[in-house]
């Protein structure tokens, strides 16, 4: 096969990282470029962050420039598509759908999880503002946020197993076990807070035993969502 049209596997591309003397190549959207002559890739590294010998298709989306900077460089071949090992358990119709709408594979849970996390954070905030300012609208707002949090949490808990099965092969890791347990606990606490406030609209108007307990319950929400966020982030960005 002509050298300029060589087809690289990903493991072959990694050999051209600029450190082994076999050329400095990077890939973008299936095309492999030679960056050896670029002053922006000294020793095969760009901006002390991106190492050559890699597929930059996703990385370049966060760059301050577009792929046009690569198109100015010599093209040396193409990158063979890598089949995700997880795809073996995914129905064919879903794989075809992912080709048309890639975001359905990676984004449903990361997108939906932000809503309950945000609502859980502001519920105790508005309750505390009510106690300090004495304005009942703050406490009512906290209740509305709590009412919105329940369906948002249900959606996030539905997309979570979907993402876990699709992208992690449904492997019951330590992080997954913790996230499942804390999610279930948080949902129960959210439902308890909602029912309590619905049954006793003025429960927070007096910081007696029930009022203090209700405030403590709502103030626990940020703690639980922080735990969920920590272990979720550990899966995406391992420490």
The portion of residues forming beta strands comes to 5-15%
Order of helices and strands: EHEEEEHEHHHHHHHH
Number of strands: 6
Main pleated-sheet profile: 4 strands, mixed
Number of helices: 10
Spell out the key features of this protein:
single chain; alpha+beta; 6 strands; Flavocytochrome B2, Chain A, domain 1; 2 domains; four-stranded mixed sheet; 239 residues; 10 helices
Quick structural overview:
By secondary structure, the protein is of the alpha+beta class. It is built from 10 helices and 6 strands; from the N terminus they run βαββββαβαααααααα.
Describe it.
This protein is an alpha+beta fold and 239 residues long. The protein folds into two domains: 3-82, Roll (Flavocytochrome B2, Chain A, domain 1), CATH 3.10.120.10; 92-236. Helices cover 56% and strands 8% of the residues. The chain is built from ten helices and six strands, in the order E-H-E-E-E-E-H-E-H-H-H-H-H-H-H-H. The protein has helices at 10-14, 68-71, 92-100, 103-106, 108-112, 114-133, 136-168, 174-199, 209-219, 221-236; strands at 6-8, 25-28, 31-34, 45-46, 50-51, 75-79. A four-stranded mixed sheet has the order 1-6-3-2. It has a two-stranded antiparallel sheet with strand order 4-5. A hairpin with a 3-residue loop joins strand 4 and strand 5. The longest helix has 33 residues, at 136-168. It starts with 5 loop residues before the first strand and ends with a helix.
